[in-house]
């Protein structure tokens, strides 16, 4: 094996166009964290695929495991967390088997990530141009002059006006939306094929949110990126995503094409999330909600994890572990009653 452990070329992404290769594939990804209760599983058996030229949404409430899943893909888990089972493959590299120094050669080159609150990700002591150019100098071995010239081009790509001047400015001279554009330029500097966007618009104004999302979608189309979009906003998912994976209590509970999942959900949790969306067509109707909260990881039950909050739970069927099963082509659900209960969806 070379320094970057390789795996066979990825097959076509599940649910994606058969001509598109998978840029990300997690198989049975399981993550544990060390707590006062011992080693506790917080992400459990996640199978996820992102293909070239597609956007896959990863949705769920806070505490469902979305961000931990993305940090696992990038090899950015905190020191008290570990991948205890499963694999993560990014563009032919088995991320889950690499050491930190090897991971540094993958981040930014094969996969890149942008976060919420972009201003906190930028160093206030350096110009934004120097921070973007640093990645080019590190991975490409370019001179400072050549890296800065390309940084100006990247700023133009992400629609930062007056790019040649603004590369010399500091983070405090940028708005939140412009800081996120800088982070996008940094993420795309070395031409990765996988972009992970973790709640990229949470800290932004509504109008700026739309601009950033439209920019991500444009860049995804122009560059042929695979994008994993992590969000709790189903409106964003409806507008942006080709496929969706819904997480609850560390597990994927439903996965499928975005249109099908919105129109005809097969898991009660997915349906309940959809009913909690604000929709103009439901003016005057009470807003849906899900009683209770996501249990802490050390209290995850061995049975259906949504049972305690589910209006459709039946003891004899739901009081046992539930596997993720295929209901139709590329539509998976982790519900014993899937197919026998009529769950309302929405029109995205």
Walk me through this protein's architecture.
This protein folds into 2 domains: 22-241, P-loop containing nucleotide triphosphate hydrolases (Rossmann fold, 3-Layer(aba) Sandwich), CATH 3.40.50.300; 251-333, no CATH class. With 348 residues, it is an alpha/beta fold. Helix content is 30%, strand content 23%. Strand 4 and strand 5 form a beta hairpin. The model is unreliable at 1-20 (pLDDT under 50). The longest helix is centred in the middle third of the chain and has 18 residues, at 206-223. An 8-stranded mixed beta sheet has the order 6-7-8-3-9-10-12-11, with helices on both faces. It has helices at 66-74, 100-106, 128-140, 144-157, 163-166, 176-188, 206-223, 234-240, 258-263, 268-275, 315-318, and strands at residues 22-35, 38-51, 54-59, 81-90, 93-94, 111-114, 194-198, 226-231, 243-248, 251-257, 325-328, 331-333. Helix 4 crosses helix 6. It comes from Nocardioides albidus. It is a peripheral membrane protein. Belongs to the ABC transporter superfamily.
